[in-house]
Amino acid sequence: MARLSEKIGYGFGDLSSSMFWKIFTYYLPFFYSNVFGLSLADAGWLLLITKLWDAVSDPLMGILADRTKTRWGKYRPYLLWVALPFAVAGVLTFTTPAFGYTGKLVWAYCTYILMMTVYTAINVPYGAMLGVMSADQRERNVFSSYRMFFAYGGSFIAVAMFEPLCRLFGNDAATASQGGLNMPSDPAAWQTAMIVIAAICFGFFLLSFMLTSERVNVDSRDAGIEQESSVGRDIRALLRNAPWWILLGVSICVLLFNSIRGGAAAYYFADYIDGDSFMGSIFGHSLLISCAIFLSVGEIANMLGVVLAVPLARRIGKKNAYIAAILTAGIFTAAFYPLSGEGAASYWLMLLLQAVISVGAGVTLPLVWSMFADVADYSELRNGNSSVGLIFSSSSMAQKFGGAFGGSFVLWLLAAYGYIVPGQEPAAAAAEIVQSGSAIEGLRSLMSWIPALACLLGALVMSLYPLSDRRMAEIQAELKLKRGEDVR
């Protein structure tokens, strides 16, 4: 039975990862277009192309981690080795060099590719640890819930701190946009804010390393098989693993949902929400309404969803709980479309919808991580080798694919709808930018029915998942017998 400190320590790892990930999801598209100075089209291609590298790096990292042998275990040492590069790469990503447009574009590609590579190097082994910290399915659910609770806690810390930090370190009165997003246009403010976030992440990764341990030996390869052929065998087994394909599809759908809504939120608040009309009618202080408040409400509700995930899964099963949660998130997301951007009633309803949506989304992630551990057990029983790192790398790959296409889609759709970027169009030279009706329609769609469709697709794909709780109990009983025979 794992100690409470170990469960908390495991959660610290995703607290760090999620702080970076949520800032990338919510603010990086806005930073690239409205602060760094890239066009919407170039920023969209940047987010997509850099993530395509992860289609190669994630499985490679999984294969490498599966073959790592140290006195600390196979996966856990990467928390120690990569913590500092992770922090440094994050700061470089939010650094704006004094280059021309082409030089800045090259810098953005290099630093973001570096960031995603380092993210892979620490996050894939961290995720794979779930498969070796416990062999018990229910305890894995608990570990996964701790992980996601702390992940959303980290996300809350990041989104609650980031806007205030940017304003604190800003050295001019200029803002990147008007309305409900009050962010400085000074690039140094964004970089300094990221230094603070990176230092926090570094510390929590070290704590995660110190508080956790690996217990399950999943290295069942035959000593006489060459490593090259073993890699090929692992990949072939993965490609024949039908439950893995289903979870991969589900993960992409959910990350599309999250990244589209998250990436559009900053633009939505900057150009659709009338902060003065809402806060002026109540407090007379427009600063109190911000994208950060909206996102922070979502992160708190996500944490509540994580708490509900385990009891809900025990009552109706992981698969049914997942489908119910994702459909709930999709239905209430679609309800965003008719909301007005003005007045107190509209904004309070917006916060209520955000809370319900985020509770549903919060239920899904600990369940899907636990399911990936189940898929590794299924692979071990069927193929004689679980390939935990390779299987968990696919979830990271799905996360980045979903984030890449979602973030790029936001930028491309805004460009297609005629969104005006401050400083990049003649009309943007005015003190206050007024977006066209077409651009506003694009913002409303990106916050409502478009991500809702991703939820519906995710529910349909999950309905095909074959590893029920009863089937997993049978698999784990057979694995216990098999591992006992291997020990003797």
Short note summarizing the structure:
By secondary structure, this protein is mostly helical. It has helices at residues 4-36, 40-52, 54-66, 77-93, 101-128, 130-133, 137-169, 187-211, 227-239, 242-271, 275-282, 291-316, 318-334, 344-383, 388-416, 437-446, 449-462, 469-487.
Q: What key phrases describe this protein's structure?
A:
488 residues; mainly alpha; 76% helix; single chain; globular
Question: Helix and strand layout, with pairings?
Answer:
Blueprint (H helix, E strand, L loop, with lengths): L3 H33 L3 H13 L1 H13 L10 H17 L7 H28 L1 H4 L3 H33 L17 H25 L15 H13 L2 H30 L3 H8 L8 H26 L1 H17 L9 H40 L4 H29 L20 H10 L2 H14 L6 H19 L1
Helix pairs in contact: 1-5, 1-7, 1-8, 1-10, 2-5, 2-15, 3-5, 3-15, 4-5, 4-8, 5-15, 7-8, 7-12, 7-14, 10-14, 10-15, 10-16, 10-17, 12-13, 12-14, 13-14, 13-17, 14-15, 14-18, 15-16
